[in-house]
Design brief:
The protein is of the alpha+beta class. The chain folds into 2 domains: about 80 residues, lambda repressor-like DNA-binding domains (434 Repressor (Amino-terminal Domain)); about 180 residues, Umud Fragment, subunit A (Ribbon), CATH 2.10.109. About 35% of the residues lie in helices and about 20% in strands. It is built from 10 helices and 9 strands. Strands 2-1-3-4-9-5-6-7-8 form a 9-stranded mixed β-sheet. Helix 2 crosses helix 3. The relative contact order is 0.11.
Length: about 260
């Protein structure tokens, strides 16, 4: 299988490994790896899995794509995944997952404690029976007026998103980030183009900005909100469909410009 053998050789060199080093990492003999790379032997599935894990990609990509033609974001599938196995949660007396609340005063600590079960255990907890039972949920108290008519102090309930690349354009998300802390924004996904997300506020007084996808620690898709304040009837701060379309067009134009600058 020339494609697979070429891919194995390319990925090994991309990681900077000699055949001896790569074979040792996988747990096979160097001679067998040489046979794989020369197309004299087909790798077993368990060895393909080990290679994929070591290279941060998938078996499907190794056996079906020319990896030399893929961008890092298309190849390195693992760096955008936030599997549930690393997610700290709590359960109630009936072994059902709680909804942990991250209040404003705990927001700063959450960016460092989000993966610590002891930290998560100390957060306030509640449940909402109307939410689908298949998801994992967390609640965040938002600050500022960038997402009006959603008011400061509103609690946004988000469903956990395992893969950053699954973000849907124009939907609202809670993003837990390395540099910006916890933000609630409307998000546009350009990861496959340049590895970035564009974050847009519904309050047009705030300028959209971009964020590297690798800055993301957690993603929570907005599913519901709780507020003790009601927006005023004459509130004009919410974004219209036409305004949102204009925002998307502006972002697409910026993407084209970025691509042209990169080529130049």
């Amino acid at each position: 299988m020339p494609l697979i053998s070429d891919n194995i050789k390319y990925l090994r060199k991309k990681l900077g490994f000699t055949q001896e080093q790569f074979a040792e990492q996988i747990g096979i003999k160097r001679s067998l790896l040489g046979a794989y790379e020369e197309g004299r032997a087909d790798p077993r599935i368990n060895n393909l899995i080990k290679m994929a894990e070591l290279c941060g990609t998938s078996v499907d990509i190794i056996i079906s794509k020319d990896v030399s033609k893929l961008s890092d974001s298309e190849l390195n599938t693992d760096k955008y995944k936030r599997g549930k196995e690393i997610l700290a949660i709590t359960v109630d007396a009936n072994d059902k997952e709680n909804i942990e609340l991250v209040p404003q005063k705990a927001a700063a600590g959450y960016t460092t404690g989000f993966a610590d079960p002891e930290y998560i255990k100390e957060l306030p907890k509640f449940s909402l029976p109307m939410l689908p039972t298949h998801g994992t949920y967390r609640a965040f108290e938002i600050t500022g007026d960038s997402m009006l008519p959603i008011l400061p102090g509103t609690i946004i309930i988000g469903e956990y998103v395992e893969d950053v690349r699954d973000i849907k354009n124009g939907k609202t998300y809670i993003l837990v980030t390395k540099s910006d802390g916890i933000v609630y924004k409307r998000v546009f996904n350009y990861i496959n183009d340049n590895g970035k997300l564009f974050l847009v506020s519904d309050n047009r007084q705030y300028t959209p900005y971009q964020l590297d996808a690798e800055e993301i620690l957690e993603v929570w898709s907005s599913k519901a909100y709780i507020s003790v304040q009601f927006p005023e009837a004459d509130d004009k701060s919410d974004v219209s469909t036409e305004q949102l379309a204009s925002i998307v067009l502006e972002l697409q134009q910026e993407i084209v410009k970025l691509k042209e600058d990169k080529k130049g």
